[in-house]
Amino acid sequence: MVKLESRILDIDYQGVVLNIEDARKIGVLDGDRVQIVRGDKGLFVQAFVVTTKTILPPGIFGIYHKTNERLNSKDGDTFEVRHADRPGSINFIKKKMDNEKLNAEEMKAIVTDIVDDILSPGEISAFIAASYINGLDMDEIEYLTRSMVQTGESLDFSSHPIADKHSIGGVPGNKITLLIVPIIAAGGLKIPKTSSRAITGAGGTADLMEALAPVEFSSTEVARMTEKAGGVIVWGGATNIAPADDKIILYEYPFKIDARGQMLASVMAKKIAVGADLVVIDIPVGNEAKVTTPEEGRKLAREFIELGDRFGIRVECALTYGESPVGHCIGVNLEVREALSVLEGSDFPHSLIQKSLTLAGIVFEMAGKAQSGKGFEMAEEILKSGKALSKMKEIIAVQGGNSDVKSGDLKTGEFSFEVNAPEDGYVIDMKNKALISIARMAGAPHDKGAGIYLHKKRGQRIEKGEPIYTIYAEREWRLEKAIQEARQLMPVLVEGMLIDRVPSDYWRPPMKQ
Ligand SMILES: O=P(O)(O)OC[C@H]1O[C@H](OP(=O)(O)O)[C@H](O)[C@@H]1O
Ligand SMILES: Nc1ccnc(=O)[nH]1
């Protein structure tokens, strides 16, 4: 054990930086962990070690921002720093890698160490990869969900029922939450909606809402705002509601994967923690969606319902069309513009309106606000009368955004490229993953003006030379990358169109002797 003086490193990362001489004295190497002890406050914080020869002299150690959130130190404080044992959770991750089943304590240990920033990014990735490859059974998913709830805060509302909705994602352009939340809140139900940022897509609901208002709030603020406006749309990652969730999603995002067990737990932990009584879950089904067949969708729906049952939440699932994008817009500002235009009274795009009203209608029926079969009408009346728009403005205002915003205020990036139809014909295929990939190349979701506008959808007729879709970007180099990606992936197929041309020198028959 050595005594070291602290230096706060204002970098949003976890762990500590030790001079190599101090690290040797303590007996740790890069990648090991130390325990930082502050006797006067009874604090014992574990942290991941990085060493330096030059940046910090012996006697001084650096504390990254995330670790300091726990230590609450300032420059010049003195701590005892000693070797910490390898966390037991690593053995449990290894167990999952070996395809063995984890029990409740083992799962809790993994989740606690993720939340406490004790596991390294590599170790968390290994847990996700092992679960992705070997799967989690219903008991393990229950343990994971419970641990995710218990390692965070829960909301407590003065009155019930609390309604909620969630989409498993996987279909581009799925901006329905921006319509459903104000409709449900305007219908008199409380809906404290927490969303993730993009996981496999080009814009998660938290990314979209951020174009209208701040989305980072504490749990107490989420509860207060919901009591006031009836609903909110916030980023779950900023609250302390199921904090493990976004720490896991962070490592799923680069792979564009959503491990099934993690997905069920991620969605349901948030619903349990906000105190939801009834939840509707959107399961998009399509060739390139997270769920590819209706059978698989029904199986997942049963799993959501069973998981809800284990925690006393009533869950209904809607299998929805996930073969092509929802609406015509993909990417943050484009999607928000499309959603706002519907709230403002546009009856286009029909599919977006239909899907949003159907899901909101299910919630009204589940809550007994509408008779069976009448939920859709109730949702439609709220949308058409402008009550949903007023409620959305209230939600934007309560979250600190500009409630005078109009759909036309949401701007696309200044660089754009139109892809035209090479032939007359019908649009016969739209590849979701390729569209997402192009939108991400163009800068989505980080650059809010980046994305894709689809002029035509699957099944529509198009004439040669007419635009099929336009790519938007905020930076020229990003647009160029997106165009290259589009040339390679060909996300939209028009019948009769040449898919590829293979030159004659691609293959030569052997020469005759
Ligand atoms: O990026 P992919 O995997 O498509 O989906 C992620 C999105 O799906 C869910 O949507 P919602 O919060 O129910 O609207 C998540 O919260 C997130 O915003
Ligand atoms: N894994 C997830 C899928 C969709 N939404 C979430 O919040 N989490």
UniProtKB/TrEMBL annotation:
SUPFAM superfamilies noted in UniProt: Nucleoside phosphorylase/phosphoribosyltransferase catalytic domain, Nucleoside phosphorylase/phosphoribosyltransferase N-terminal domain, Pyrimidine nucleoside phosphorylase C-terminal domain
Enzyme Commission number, as recorded: 2.4.2.57
Record-annotated active site: 258 (proton donor)
Keywords: Glycosyltransferase, Transferase
Keyword Iron among UniProt keywords: no
PANTHER family: THYMIDINE PHOSPHORYLASE
HAMAP family assigned to the protein according to its UniProt record, in alphabetical order: AMP_phosphorylase
Function as written in the Swiss-Prot or TrEMBL entry: Catalyzes the conversion of AMP and phosphate to adenine and ribose 1,5-bisphosphate (R15P). Exhibits phosphorylase activity toward CMP and UMP in addition to AMP. Functions in an archaeal AMP degradation pathway, together with R15P isomerase and RubisCO.
The protein, known as: AMP phosphorylase
Species in which this protein is naturally found: Methanomicrobium antiquum
